[in-house]
Design brief:
The structure holds two protein chains of two kinds. Chain A is built from no helices and twelve strands. By secondary structure, chain A is mainly beta. Chain B is about 0% helix and about 55% strand. Classes of the chains: A mainly beta, B mainly beta. The interface between A and B is medium-sized, with 19 and 25 residues.
């Protein structure tokens, strides 16, 4: 079945550091890929998405590129801020049925 | 501001009780979903619905049922609550051909 594997957390970085959160997947066909973010005390919000190979999703300074050859969708940001502290979830939809499979989440803490 | 509203933020129930978790969306979305979120396990799909009076089992439906009598409302029912159902429950909705889910803020349920 479909699955998403994220790097283990928690991740702690200093402000303005470079961020990478790894995400790899197993799925049938050609899935759509997503990153969601959950700020403390809130529900999840869509951060970015990519629907086909080599697409790059971007939002709020975050980027992720759909790599079919490595089945990966790593999240990156060049300079993180304290306000980026949250839990980040990678997810996929492999059958176009609008039903998402999520990874376990990666907790990110940015210290000033 | 469009939203998904979950009726309770925190809930404490006794073992064996019948528990209702309510979710209402105001975006006229066709699709609605119930997930539970547990540390280290990410989000797991319990039930979902693509239309009124329609429901389908997700990955972990045991011990749960759902009701969708109106398009905007999707209720999750714990028939006889057990301590292993202590969790954060997240409701989400999306439109067909969606641009991502919209999540509620979650209900943290404790079964004692």
């Amino acid at each position: 079945g479909d699955s998403v594997t994220q790097m283990e957390g928690p991740v702690t970085l200093s402000e303005e550091a470079f961020l990478t959160i790894n995400c790899t997947y197993t799925a049938t066909g050609y899935p759509s890929l997503f990153w969601y973010v959950q700020y403390p005390g809130e529900g999840l919000q869509l951060l970015l998405k990519a629907t086909k190979a080599d697409d790059k999703g971007s939002n709020k300074g975050f980027e992720a590129t759909y790599r079919k050859e490595t089945t990966s969708f790593h999240l990156e940001k060049g300079s993180v801020q304290v306000s980026d502290s949250a839990v980040y979830f990678c997810a996929l939809d492999s059958r176009g049925n609008e039903k998402l499979t999520f990874g376990t989440g990666t907790r990110l803490t940015i210290i000033p | 501001d469009v939203k998904v509203t979950q009726s309770s933020r925190y809930l404490v129930k006794r073992t064996g009780e019948k528990v209702f978790l309510e979710c209402v969306q105001d975006m006229d979305h066709e699709n609605m979903f119930w997930y539970r979120q547990d540390p280290g396990l990410g989000l797991r799909l319990i039930y979902f619905s693509y239309d009124v009076k329609m429901k389908e089992k997700g990955d972990i439906p045991e011990g749960y049922s759902v009701s969708r009598e109106k398009k905007e409302r999707f209720s999750l029912i714990l028939e006889s609550a057990s301590t292993n159902q202590t969790s954060m429950y997240l409701c989400a909705s999306s439109s067909r051909g969606y641009e991502g889910y919209t999540f509620g803020s979650g209900t943290r349920l404790t079964v004692v």
